[in-house]
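Morning, I've got a small favour to ask if you have a moment. I've dropped the whole record in just underneath, so have a look.
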Amino acid sequence: MAELIAQGPKPEQHWRRDLPDATPVVVGQAADAWQAPWERWLSRRHVEVVWSGQRLRVRRLETGRNPVHHRGKEATSFDLAPGDFFVIGATTFRLETPRPATTPSEPHQQVYARTIGVQELERLPFRDAPRRLDVLTKLPKVISSAADNRELFEQLTHLLLAGVPRADVVALVAARDGGGVEILHWDRRLPTPGGFDPSRRLVLDAVEHLKDTVLHVWQTTAGSNYTLQGNFDWAFCTPIRGDACPGWGIYVAGRFGDDPRASLLAAIDDNALADDLKFVELVAAILCSLTQVQALERRQTVLGRFFSPGVLRVLHEANAEAALQPRETETSVLFCDLRGFSRKSEEASGNLLGLLDRVSRALGVMTQQILEHQGVVADFLGDAALGFWGWPIADPETVGLACRAALGIRTFYEGLNPRGDHPLAGFRVGIGLATGRAVAGRLGTLEQGKVSVFGPVVNLASRLEGMTKLLHVPILIDEPTAAYVRATVPATVARCRRLARVRPAGMNNAVLVAELLPPADQFPSLTDDHLAHYEAALDAFLQSDWDRAMAELHRLPPTDRGQDLLTGFILRHNRTPPAGWDGVVPLDSKG
């Protein structure tokens, strides 16, 4: 099958798509087009391409505002042969016809072969754990967000190239009946012409016969100049075990440097290559596990992963498609981020799968509290979760439910013994909670959408979460949320105190932020009297009476970190308000 390959000015600005026979495809930025989001000169519907089986017919549409260049000249309609290309802005679109299957292709003499078992890799610690972990943490989202296998394979090869720096090419391959090998998808580090032909014997040894990672090194002939269509100097294949990935494998190949064989063989001897092998083995294991989980989840309702039982009943009783339509509503948005992740990743460099399991459990705690309090889980962003209330049904207790969920998450983590044996011991959370108008519902493109929430209130919740690091408190809320808590929520459920009027970095407007606190019987270190003293200190601070403000702050327990912002600001200015003081504390960073 022919492919259209887009390549922007940066290596990561890249995709490849299979061209359907005799079916028009639009390239542009529209939701139903093949998009190149990095290209600012690409219109929503810029060109139409049709593959005839021999050549690609390209036609610039009337809506394509900027020129299309072919062979150095501006053109509106032309044909492409395999290997030919056209350009829009700084992006090249090339036609290629790679072979979909392989035959035995090993013209070089094999000089080294090795089978590497999972247990052998598990005993070896990572040498570059933080970078590998950064790639691995993106894998669950890539798998869960992919609309189909094509998109999954494309994103997966990008991640693998990022995680295996010595690789020139990465491919997803599959062993087929009769001893054949199918290339599910492949990609290369640098944009060069040519196809790709993996070693059939290597793939079958790893995927079918040995069912373990197999490494091959071939003899290099001095002065030879191989293309991507020919063989590489080394390659390994790791099987993806499991019924959800039948016969699949990850194929990684590369070339020697100036000293043929020596660099890679030395890497093998001192286990430097083990990082690459172990990383790919982890990717294969995670891919297998998560695709199997997805297969099971497809037998359940998709909505059950995002909605509380009460919301599900509404969706089941009504027309689900109509109920999911986006609409503007009053929402409360909660953004919760895990603290201590970087330190834990360093400590767990030899057991990244264990760390990934702990992060999954942490996200599970957040999800449980959001759903138990009738919220909607909108997204997972690495080690953070986004939830919201107020949709699909309006509820007068929306703000109160969101506050209960936030306090439930805080209570769980503060209840853990930092030195205990619980998998989440040592983790903390920062939570931002904001209330306001937003659009909620099924958001996204025609091909891929998800239930989420959109609007300034989402950005504010995220900024508040970031500010918890600067203000040294677990939960920050905006002014509308704080007003609701003071007026409606009983003190036996939640309390709040204004912390300061701040101007976050990158924002022009000041924001009055408050801390959400558990009731006094659950958090006796800050009594209601303490909160009253802090409120009096803030009033004096805003009125430029900083001596009285300091006197009130001294009535608070020294363990209260919430007072640090005011105390530090007053002391930095020698207890004297600066000229033009407007009561606003500027924040130098986003947190």
Summary: The mean pLDDT is 81. The CA atoms of residues 41 and 416 lie 53 Å apart. Residues 3-96 form a domain with the Tumour Suppressor Smad4 fold (CATH 2.60.200.20).
